[in-house]
């Protein structure tokens, strides 16, 4: 197992924020020291939940200068790239199963000036990245089945994080590994030890209200608040 000592980047998922006060919540996690802001876009078709569209991303954009990490759980996905890059996304991650032409979609994301990510569902092997790893900036390893916040971490995904880490180290391209789903202070450590660079955390960031966001983020980084 690769044991890493560096601190991971933290990308709180606003799926667990108070939707009635989203702008305020984005400012609060920014001030609490998060690195990125994770936006879960669900279409009620590719996943059984319906969440945020580009109009909401555009409305939130003035509330933080930190990178907006937009996770598209949408099928078909191609027609949604331009609306989200136009709304202010910095990183766009897609699910290969949701796009008919993954390579082309990745190129469209990068041509629009955004970083491009590929997400691997719990049942999707790391091998899916063959022929794509050199074209992307980020691999999002899903440690829950996509669709809802608050699910339990699927431990088998640690082996996948290790496999993706080996693939990236061998290839020599700069690609970040992000882990999404059921990440808390305990599973965060396991993810970082397996080779993760970025951790998404919804429930574990927003737990306890705004006065706790700073200590929650510090705990996810493995620091004391
Ligand atoms: O993509 C997602 C679900 O599809 C969310 O980002 C993820 O579930 C984060 O929520 P939590 O940290 O509460 O598990
Ligand atoms: Co997500």
TrEMBL record:
Catalytic activity: D-ribulose 5-phosphate = D-xylulose 5-phosphate
Keywords linked to the UniProt accession: Carbohydrate metabolism, Cobalt, Isomerase, Manganese, Metal-binding, Zinc
Cofactor mode of binding and number, as noted: Binds 1 divalent metal cation per subunit.
Keyword Metal-binding in annotation: yes
Pfam families: Ribul_P_3_epim
Keyword Transmembrane: no
Single GO MF annotation: metal ion binding
Signal peptide (UniProt feature, chain positions): none
SUPFAM superfamilies the record matches: Ribulose-phoshate binding barrel
An annotated GO cellular component: cytoplasm
Residues given in the record as a divalent metal cation binding sites: 38, 40, 71, 180
Active-site residues, as the UniProt record annotates them: 40 (proton acceptor), 180 (proton donor)
EC number(s) per entry: 5.1.3.1
Domain of life the protein comes from: Bacteria
Pathway annotation from the record: Carbohydrate degradation
Binding site for substrate: 13, 71, 147-150, 180-182, 202-203
Cofactor: Co(2+); Zn(2+); Fe(2+); a divalent metal cation
Transmembrane segments: none
Biological process, per Gene Ontology: pentose catabolic process; pentose-phosphate shunt
HAMAP family assigned: RPE
PANTHER family: RIBULOSE-5-PHOSPHATE-3-EPIMERASE
Family according to the record: Belongs to the ribulose-phosphate 3-epimerase family.
Functional summary from the UniProt entry: Catalyzes the reversible epimerization of D-ribulose 5-phosphate to D-xylulose 5-phosphate.
Listed name of the protein: Ribulose-phosphate 3-epimerase
Gene that this polypeptide is encoded by: rpe
């Amino acid at each position: 197992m690769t044991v890493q000592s560096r601190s991971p980047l933290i990308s709180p998922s606003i799926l667990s924020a108070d939707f009635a006060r989203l702008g305020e919540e984005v400012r609060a996690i920014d001030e609490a020291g998060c690195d990125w802001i994770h936006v879960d876009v669900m279409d009620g078709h590719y996943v059984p939940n319906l969440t945020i569209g580009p109009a909401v991303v555009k409305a939130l954009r003035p509330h933080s200068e930190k990178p907006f990490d937009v996770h598209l759980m949408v099928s078909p996905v191609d027609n949604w790239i331009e609306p989200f890059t136009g709304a202010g996304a910095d990183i766009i991650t897609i699910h290969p199963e949701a796009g008919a032409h993954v390579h082309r979609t990745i190129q469209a994301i990068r041509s629009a000036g955004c970083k491009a990510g590929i997400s691997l569902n719990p049942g999707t092997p790391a091998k899916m990245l063959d022929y794509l790893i050199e074209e992307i900036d980020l691999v999002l390893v899903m440690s829950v089945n996509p669709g809802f916040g608050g699910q339990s971490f699927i431990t088998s995904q640690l082996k996948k994080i290790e496999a993706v880490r080996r693939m990236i180290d061998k290839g020599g391209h700069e690609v970040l590994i992000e882990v999404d789903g059921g990440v808390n202070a305990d599973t965060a450590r396991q993810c970082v030890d397996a080779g993760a660079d970025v951790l998404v955390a919804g429930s574990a960031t927003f737990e306890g209200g705004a006065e706790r966001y700073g200590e929650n983020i510090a705990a996810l980084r493995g620091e004391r608040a």
